[in-house]
Amino acid sequence: MASNAQYRRVLLKISGEGLMGAKEYGLDPVTLDRVAGEIRSVRDLGVEVCVVIGGGNIFRGVSGASTGMERAAADNVGMLATVINALSLQNSLEKNGVETRVQSAIVMPTVCESFIRRRAIRHLEKGRVVIFAAGTGNPFFTTDTAAALRGVEMGCDALLKATQVDGVYSADPKKVKDAVRYDRLTFNEVLARDLAVMDTSAIALCRENRMPIVVFDLHRPGAFAQVVSGCGLFTTIAN
Ligand code: UDP
């Protein structure tokens, strides 16, 4: 591990919207390339990086269900959207010279590997980035819960949650001018105050397994490497 890195292995959670750039839907190639560069800089610090990616830039099960689609079917579509994002990010990472494997919770062997925990660990040990696609593989879950689950399974030191702002605030800082940013919170405070960080099942899984969550803004250049080195702006949530 590089001397200034605080972690040996991290799980990065990126929402689908985080790959959209200024677009209203889908993927922005420039944003994908920039995010890939951020991941490479952390990998170059000697930190093992795995990624869980959302699908909200393409399809969300809840929205599908609101138009009359059966929820489980809509969630399957949502999970497939995360595979599109995962393969696209893999492509950008490999263009940036980072060897990457995609492992999907829904098997599709002609497109990517299936999720096999021990195999994923081996990839990380070899310096590859592993992107986990298709969430948990089950409807009625979110990719936040998938991130907590994979983070714990892979023995990650922290779950780094990339958002559109530089931490957790008392209210939405884009709407409330005097919203307060927290440097540190406990899991219980997040749950008791109903702070919109991740869904409660993800928070509970991290709390039970004592895996800290670090919330930061992936769109600020260099932020990912800074957070991993313990500097810059972020909120840490721990026991
Ligand atoms: N999804 C699911 N099970 C999972 C993870 C995701 O059914 O374990 C579906 C669900 O429909 C969700 C969609 O995939 O709306 C996209 O994931 P998510 O909304 O978490 O993406 P994000 O908000 O992070 O972009």
Automatic annotation (TrEMBL):
Which EC number applies? 2.7.4.22
Q: Where are the transmembrane segments?
A: none
One of the Pfam families matching this protein, by short name: AA_kinase
Its annotated pathway reads: Pyrimidine metabolism; CTP biosynthesis via de novo pathway; UDP from UMP (UMPK route): step 1/1
Kindly state which keywords UniProt assigns to this record, in alphabetical order.
ATP-binding, Cytoplasm, Kinase, Nucleotide-binding, Pyrimidine biosynthesis, Transferase
- What are the binding positions for ATP in this chain? K13, I14, S15, G16, G56, R60, T163, Q164, Y169, D172
| Single GO biological process annotation from the record | 'de novo' CTP biosynthetic process
What controls how active this protein is? Answer: Inhibited by UTP.
Q: Where is the Aspartate/glutamate/uridylate kinase domain?
A: 9-217
Q: Which protein family is it in?
A: Belongs to the UMP kinase family.
This one is known as: Uridylate kinase
Gene source species = Magnetospirillum molischianum DSM 120
**Recorded name of the encoding gene:** pyrH
